[in-house]
From TrEMBL, chains A, C:
Residue stretches making up the Pyridine nucleotide-disulphide oxidoreductase dimerisation domain: 337-445
Similarity comment text for this entry: Belongs to the class-I pyridine nucleotide-disulfide oxidoreductase family.
Record's keyword annotation contains Metal-binding: no
Lineage top rank: taxon: Bacteria
Keywords noted in UniProt: Cytoplasm, Disulfide bond, FAD, Flavoprotein, NAD, Oxidoreductase, Redox-active center
Cofactor note: Binds 1 FAD per subunit.
Catalytic activity from the UniProt record: N(6)-[(R)-dihydrolipoyl]-L-lysyl-[protein] + NAD(+) = N(6)-[(R)-lipoyl]-L-lysyl-[protein] + NADH + H(+)
Name of protein: Dihydrolipoyl dehydrogenase
Naturally occurring in which organism (per UniProt): Agromyces neolithicus
Cofactor: FAD
Protein's gene: lpdA_2
Extra information: The active site is a redox-active disulfide bond.
Coiled-coil intervals: none
Any one Pfam family match given in the protein's UniProt record, by short name: Pyr_redox_2
Length: 457, 86, 457
């Protein structure tokens, strides 16, 4: 039984937790990270990084299949899943090594083991007690299921889907959100027949409706099937496969069912409630400065209600360290955090959808322009279509940007600055985007909203 | 040497410009506009030291330190970015 | 013999000319464009667009060759140059159609024919006279050669290189600037042996030296040879090929020599001097508002000394229309215009190089950080390396951003706003970039310069 003291004890070494620790030591504080599994958490080992590796392998497959369109002779000859696995694991392990080195270089102890909150200022790991002037809870999230839907056998979650050593012939995906459409996209590129089952009326239902509709069209063209607006009822499985039944009686047969219905917070049996931390459906509510109801205990990352994204986790981790150090960092609202969905075509957005902006500012107070990428040279060269929609308050700032296109993800960085800095289209208009880039489409939409369209009417 | 231009990022002295309610100098940086707003004035009422009287960040910052007697922090650290109610 | 009157007569229908006309009619002015060849000019027909199509075909070839690294089975089987040509021509002709439609919809007459400035307010085309309250000269540029170096036979310029119907076995490229390295990159991907001959000590000599060096390393790895710092002396050609001799006596044999030593202004014998427009080595000097020494005559695009880029042409075209309309548009200095070189790896930059910033602001007044993409997850996933360098004035704004990486081009849009809006690293720091993107590398460099590195030391 030992006791160690730190300015900050961080429970959970995912994106949110390690960012808090890094920023803390930069500010001259001492910090320790307690991690029961692998430093880097969901994002590095089971989330962002390995899925994006699969998605890039899928892109390579698509490029190889389509090469003739560009005058390149190449014969696509299938997927080598062990090669895909080696590539994916190689990326993850090199990033993992880098991250471990980073914390080591910073002198941040990473304590291996399962931690439990045992007091408002202490976490216990086995026999050892880690006392912090402040505690940061960062225990992350897990793949949820639906009531009565048991995971196991042919009914899998994203963790399992990542590691499949074969390409299913036919697969059903429950949930048309980010994770569902990303796996659907990969499997389709790898040659599977895919059906997505989404209870809401649209795929990626959190995006601007025009983006959802374009994704639906694009997926249909790619041969990805989907059922929208009808809820899942039950699934049965046997040696051959699964049969999924919807509430309207419709059934789907497949080799596997991926359950991608969201991520729940990891907060059970960790001592949170015993120490007095209020939970709300398992999540940890905080004030806008990320402090829980117990003074000195903060929460960051996926356990905090709102967007579940790695860069929000980084931001919150940094924020809390600065807050504890007395720096009064600025608050970034969830709506102003960029979101990317890495299916093909990609989706990227920041700020209000057109509908939400109309609700918030009044329908007659907002204008939007959706620039079709058919007018964008670089997109045509890449063989991709889609659009860039920009939403502004009239005589006011840009409040939303919504993009769908191959490679859309990189285009949101600029929009993030525009929205967070409350730029008017008129502020951006004098700075013509480099030609030919996909980013020009954002420029064209902005020029149009500034009343001076160039390659648009 | 290009015909256009005049070194807009240079730390040229901004010269004690005063607010003039009748003036409408160009402002193109939302950051510059915001720093001024957070200090209670409208940047376009300054006589900018950039090309064609463009109000540069240095103009706003020197006005704040000379006239308002306070130092400026980078815009983002000084306040929450939005009070988005129109 | 007819005479027509307009508010603005634009001589030359390239990027600069048509942009001026479009903006003019938006502002309620009347405008006509005189074009002797094809609307869209160099960029659309012989420049940006067709070269970027070739570069994308090259990318497809590289992806096909490398597919196994990502677990994709694909057999690369060579280049089908007629397929490449069909793809390239398809893109150009569809953009051309779109552009013609755009001007038509705007009601802008495009007069076919070779124009000649015959008075301070008039351009003559054949028997017809077009009188303008203002004249905008936008006659563009052509591929230059060196004194004593005749173009012809196996000694070609970019116009010819674009349309080659075969892949040369071995090719020499004179000039390691943008156009030279882009063609070198394409040909190498298509299987040619390539040697670049550059008189200055570095490839892409206008870029930050660290970028040039990284490009040189990357090209060496790709098997692209180069000779730096020694000047071209002469070339001989016969049925078999060319022999290039440098001033130090070194010789290079190749099938073809591409001359890519810059672009000269198209201003000869167009009546400019007769009407009193001052020329400087063929270029048209202007004041900072793009007016020539003759009141009412403006110049835009490649004939104006400085960067020769399509988006600068758009910007200048728009600027002049607004200036004539009395809008006092803001001036964007050349240094703050983004530049992209689309070779593999791509290069993108805006603002001052580290060396130029030190010269301008004082070496002890600037700081720079070069974030290595080895630390960037998305770049590793894409299989690309490189770096993002950000240069700031201490306690002041970001004044330069210099990127080299696969797909770097799209990353410069954000940097363009940061530099032109005088952002401090501290302004950007709170807005963590979406994960995983290549844009995060810019974010990391900025965080470091703001004194709060995340994935860096
Ligand atoms: C398939 C998938 C794809 C995704 N793709 C993206 C994407 O592309 N972009 C993006 O921004 N986000 C993506 N996400 C979301 C992203 O992974 C999460 O938002 C992020 O990982 C949350 O970080 P966190 O630190 O809050 O939690 P986590 O990363 O879950 O980390 C929590 C850590 O706490 C540890 N822990 C838990 N309990 C204890 C305990 N009692 N003791 C010690 N340690 C404990 C866990 O082992 C874990 O390592 C994806 C998620 C998934 C599942
Ligand atoms: C190989 C290559 C690749 C390039 N790649 C890029 C790139 O990726 N990005 C980028 O930004 N820039 C690129 N550029 C540069 C870009 O093409 C030029 O900066 C741009 O085209 C300049 O526009 P402009 O309107 O000034 O001239 P131009 O496009 O040259 O247009 C001038 C027009 O005037 C017409 N004209 C000339 N004289 C007369 C006359 N007497 N009467 C009537 N018409 C006349 C010509 O026919 C022509 O159509 C590239 C250039 C080349 C050569």
């Amino acid at each position: 039984m030992s006791e160690q003291n730190f300015d900050i004890v961080v429970l959970g070494g995912g994106s949110a937790g390690y960012a808090a620790a890094i920023r803390a030591v930069e500010l001259g504080l001492t910090a320790a990270v307690i991690e029961k599994d692998k430093l880097g958490g969901t994002c590095l080992h089971r989330g962002c990084i390995p899925t994006k590796a699969l998605l890039h392998a899928a892109e390579v497959a698509e490029v190889s299949k389509d090469a003739a369109k560009y005058g390149i002779k190449a014969a696509f000859d299938g997927i080598d899943m062990s090669g895909v696995a080696a590539y994916r694991e190689g990326i993850v392990s090199s990033k993992w090594k880098g991250l471990q080195g980073l914390l080591k270089a910073r002198g941040i102890p990473v304590i291996e083991g399962e931690g439990r909150l045992v007091a408002a200022n202490a976490v216990q790991v086995g026999d050892d007690r880690y006392v912090g002037k402040n505690i940061v809870l960062a225990t992350g999230s897990y793949s949820k299921s639906l009531p009565g839907l048991d995971i196991g056998g042919r009914v899998i979650t994203s963790e399992h889907a990542l590691e499949l050593d074969f390409v299913p012939k036919k697969v059903a995906v429950l949930g048309g959100g980010v994770i569902g459409v990303e796996f659907a996209s990969v499997w389709r590129s790898f040659g599977a027949e895919v059906t997505i089952i989404e209870a809401l009326p649209h795929l990626v239902p959190n995006e601007d409706e025009s983006v959802s509709k374009q994704l639906e069209r694009a997926f249909r063209k790619r041969g990805i099937e989907y059922s929208l607006g009808v809820r899942f009822q039950s699934v049965t499985q046997n040696d051959q496969g699964v049969v999924v039944t919807l509430e309207n009686g419709q059934t789907y047969e497949a080799e596997l069912l991926l359950v991608a219905v969201g991520r729940g917070p990891v907060t059970e049996n960790l001592g949170y409630e015993e120490v007095g931390v209020t939970l709300d459906r398992g999540f940890v509510p905080t004030n806008e400065r990320l402090e829980t109801n117990v003074p000195g205990i903060y929460a960051v990352g996926d356990i905090v209600p709102g967007l579940q994204l790695a860069h929000r986790s980084y931001q919150q981790g940094i924020f809390v360290a600065e807050e504890i150090a007395g720096l009064s960092p600025i608050i970034v609202e969830d709506v102003n955090i960029p979101k990317i969905t890495y299916c093909e075509p990609e989706i990227a957005s920041v700020g209000y959808t057109e509908a939400k902006a109309a609700e918030k500012f009044g329908a007659d107070q907002v204008s939007a322009f959706d620039y079709n990428l058919a007018g964008n040279g670089k997109s045509s060269i890449l063989g991709t279509t889609g659009s860039v929609k920009v939403v502004r308050v009239n005589d006011g700032p840009i409040v939303g940007v919504h993009i769908i296109a191959g490679r859309a993800g990189e285009l949101i960085a600029e929009a993030q600055l525009a929205v967070n800095w409350e730029a008017y289209p008129e502020d951006i208009a004098p700075f013509i985007h480099a030609h030919p880039t996909q980013g020009e489409a954002f420029g064209e939409a902005v020029l149009k909203l500034a009343g001076k369209p160039l390659h648009a009417i | 040497k290009p015909a256009v231009g005049g070194g807009s990022n240079a730390p040229r002295t901004a010269g004690g410009s005063r607010l003039d309610a009748g003036r409408r100098s160009p402002v193109v940086s939302p950051i510059v506009r915001r720093i001024a707003r957070e200090h209670g004035f409208d940047a376009s009422q300054l006589d900018g030291s950039g090309p064609d009287h463009l109000v540069m960040r240095r103009d706003v910052e020197s006005f704040i330190s000379d006239e308002l007697g306070s130092a400026t922090a980078p815009a983002a650290t000084s306040a929450a970015p939005l009070a988005r109610s129109t």
